[in-house]
Amino acid sequence: xxxxxxxxxxxxxxxxxxxxxxxxxxxxxxxxxxxxxxxxxxxxxxxxxxxxxxxxxxxxxxxxxxxxxxxxxxxxxxxxxxxxxxxxxxxxxxxxxxxxxxxxxxxxxxxxxxxxxxxxxxxxxxxxxxxxxxxxxxxxxxxxxxxxxxxxxxxxxxxxxxxxxxxxxxxxxxxxxxxxxxxxxxxxxxxxxxxxxxxxxxxxxxxxxxxxxxxxxxxxxxxxxxxxxxxxxxxxxxxxxxxxxxxxxxxxxxxxxxxxxxxxxxxxxxxxxxxxxxxxxxxxxxxxxxxxxxxxxxxxxxxxxxxxxxxxxxxxxxxxxxxxxxxxxx
Length: 330
Fold this sequence. Notes:
With 330 residues, this protein is of the alpha/beta class. It has two domains: 14-126 and 248-298, D-Maltodextrin-Binding Protein, domain 2 (3-Layer(aba) Sandwich), CATH 3.40.190.10; 127-245 and 300-328, Periplasmic binding protein-like II (D-Maltodextrin-Binding Protein, domain 2). It contains 14 helices and twelve strands. The protein has helices at 39-50, 62-72, 89-94, 106-109, 145-150, 165-178, 182-189, 200-208, 222-230, 260-270, 273-276, 279-282, 296-299, 312-328, and strands spanning 14-15, 24-29, 54-59, 80-85, 121-134, 156-159, 193-197, 215-219, 235-237, 244-253, 286-287, 307-308. Strands 1, 2, 3, 4, 5, 6, 7, 8, 9, 10, 11 and 12 form a twelve-stranded mixed sheet that branches. α1 (39-50) links the parallel β2 (24-29) and β3 (54-59). α7 (182-189) crosses α14. The chain is globular, with a radius of gyration of 19 Å. 45% of the residues are buried.
């Protein structure tokens, strides 16, 4: 989750200035390796524990991440990709670039709202998409998607589904509720949307927190960051009556990796207490195992009564059609 980031490299890559053949090269998204993200801490712990070096290479979004490794194919320098989510998992499988994995006792270790059935990938955090509001300034927020679309005059900011993980999440969220009637609902919702940004950071910081929108597309865990780092309880994420769309982020090892042993050590490391305990404090998402000390702020969060999902194969097959429906809704 892109939180506590005041800058993003929107185009291009961010890498360390050095590289060697013994380094484990991990492709991920910008906020994961930012000063405030989990990357620097995870890198330090892993390198000390396993005596192996990590080189992070970052891009602006999960969608860009997958596109990059597909374009590079077997010539990629990456050993491992970290940061894809469920809306991209079928495309990742179809790319045939990722190795099958054997992780000891993975089913016993995981604590997810769904059963994990993907042998090529290891999840590392999860959350739910939600609309967040300032509870001091915005009264009577909508309690359902239907109320949001049909019975509120709120000013809303969202992200573009072509460039943003939560943006694509909203697309699938609405489709999961309304099915073939989604274009009709988009035509009504679009009248309330004051801005569509390329990424989450711009929506949240530059528009929502600046007071230019009442509701921002984000995550149910977003208020935890305000509580933990600002001692501020003014922000609330809404659990909709229809349910909220579940997002699970994961990592995978590329078949072309020259450092398979180190890559597998990292994949097992993902499911350790050392890795997972860092996630709530830095990525502001739920860990995928039961950690010993979940931050107290997470205990006050609204938990959706239903985790919505669409079959990943359906998303892969229909995503472009759904994007066109959104673009054409007026």
